[in-house]
């Protein structure tokens, strides 16, 4: 019996090359399908304001941005019902009930509000964080810009929770830097609850309401992590001229806003992603409606309602024509 002839080395190299090509194509498709983060660019305010505005313009505009799994792209911004348990409804509904429509327009940004786990097998079928956050940011910014264009004397209150807090905080930082969709002097105040980019202690950051956990937002702890569908953008660098009107609430142990610095190391991508995905559904993160921020038992949502109500009550009454 004759000896087997060894396979040419060239065949082995072809097989290896084919495998490498398949892996590279798969990674490229993964990134393309997951989506890139597409945040709206600067929208500097327009020309000098008039002395009056249209009769159907509200005195105050309240922007409410829900958190992950608390909205969808087709929800009604004036009667949101995508998730009846949405935390932000505990803020927007009392405000809507307290003031007439001509005094305050309450707008809840409708967006996909999802956070797909990029390492789930099989895929979980949700929209990626990048696509979700991009849609929420674009819709919120566009609505503010449209309102200012039509109603140049209206003033603004901004509030958001979780992914919505990231969106609201980003918009506030742009406004505070003079690059936002509305002028800084028209913003009465901003509050974020469980902000994933929370980074207190530095000049220009938000004022803490309630206890101050030692950690930072997950996006700050994971700065530099960029995998398909998830771009962690790190700290904002402060709120500029809005710093003295911006507040944040974070419960200790909520990994979305209270992650140990450097603990979610991008070098350990799979472990970091698992922690991040679990953080979005952790028990602490879902209990802000009962989380007390002072010794009187005031909860995070009640504090935010009282804060917003005070701003609206004392807001200017612009002339209408």
UniProtKB/TrEMBL annotation:
Keywords from UniProt, A to Z, are: Disulfide bond, Hydrolase, Membrane, Serine esterase, Transmembrane, Transmembrane helix
Which GO terms of the molecular function aspect are on file?
A: carboxylic ester hydrolase activity
The organism sits in which domain of life?
Answer: Bacteria
Q: Entry's SUPFAM superfamilies?
A: alpha/beta-Hydrolases (SSF53474)
Which Pfam family would be a valid example here? Cutinase
InterPro entries attached to this UniProt entry: AB_hydrolase_fold, Cutinase/axe
Task: Read off the Gene3D superfamilies from this record.
Answer: alpha/beta hydrolase (3.40.50.1820)
Q: Please state which protein family the record places this protein in.
A: Belongs to the cutinase family.
Protein name (Swiss-Prot/TrEMBL): Cutinase family protein
């Amino acid at each position: 019996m004759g000896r087997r002839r060894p396979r040419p080395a060239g065949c082995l190299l072809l097989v290896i090359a084919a495998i490498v090509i398949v892996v590279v194509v798969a990674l490229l498709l993964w990134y393309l399908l997951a989506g890139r983060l597409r945040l709206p660019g600067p929208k500097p305010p327009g020309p000098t304001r008039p002395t009056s505005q249209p009769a159907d313009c509200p005195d105050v505009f309240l922007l409410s941005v829900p958190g992950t799994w608390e909205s969808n792209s087709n929800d009604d911004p004036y009667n949101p019902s995508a998730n009846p348990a949405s935390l932000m409804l505990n803020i927007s509904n009392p405000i809507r009930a307290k003031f007439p429509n001509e005094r305050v327009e309450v707008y809840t940004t409708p967006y996909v509000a999802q956070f797909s786990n990029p390492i789930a097998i099989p895929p979980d079928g949700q929209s990626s964080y990048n696509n979700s956050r991009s849609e929420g940011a674009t819709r919120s910014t566009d609505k503010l810009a449209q309102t200012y264009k039509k109603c140049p004397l209206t003033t603004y209150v901004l509030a958001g929770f979780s992914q919505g807090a990231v969106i609201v905080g980003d918009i506030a930082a742009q406004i505070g830097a003079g690059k936002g969709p509305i002028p800084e002097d028209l913003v009465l105040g901003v509050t974020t609850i469980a902000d994933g980019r929370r980074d207190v202690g530095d000049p220009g950051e938000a004022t803490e309401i309630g206890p101050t956990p030692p950690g930072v937002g997950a996006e700050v702890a994971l700065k530099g992590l960029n995998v398909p569908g998830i771009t962690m953008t790190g700290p904002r660098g402060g709120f500029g001229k809005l710093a003295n009107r911006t507040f944040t609430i974070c419960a200790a142990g909520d990994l979305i806003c209270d992650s140990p610095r450097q603990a979610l190391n991008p070098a350990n991508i799979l472990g970091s992603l698992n922690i991040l995905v679990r953080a979005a559904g952790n028990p602490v993160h879902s209990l802000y409606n009962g989380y007390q921020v002072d010794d009187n038992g005031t909860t995070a949502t009640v504090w935010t309602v009282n804060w917003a109500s005070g701003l609206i009550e004392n807001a200017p009454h612009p002339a209408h024509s």
